[in-house]
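Database export, one record per block. Field names are fixed; values are copied verbatim from the stored entry.
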Amino acid sequence: MPLPVRIRRSIQLEVELTRVVDLVELAPLASFGMDRRNLLGPTVDQSRMVGHAVSWLGCAGLLVPSACHSGTNLVIYTNQMAPADCVDITE
């Protein structure tokens, strides 16, 4: 049986957010007993806990290291965006 085909579409965004938590280095989480292994590991419990905390604080974005690739992911909490914040598709 052939594998299903996954269609991917890349888009480019221009993003301006006033309140973003930067956890790319992950060092701030060490005081809470979290490290790269358990935050980016196979379970998502701690990742969800961090995401909920960022949302509860009213932040519109969260920068985190990618769990799958080298690079950084930006999580956008659209319901937390301030009037001055914007996300536009540029391509």
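Remark 1: The mean pLDDT is 85.
Remark 2: The radius of gyration is 15 Å.
End of record.
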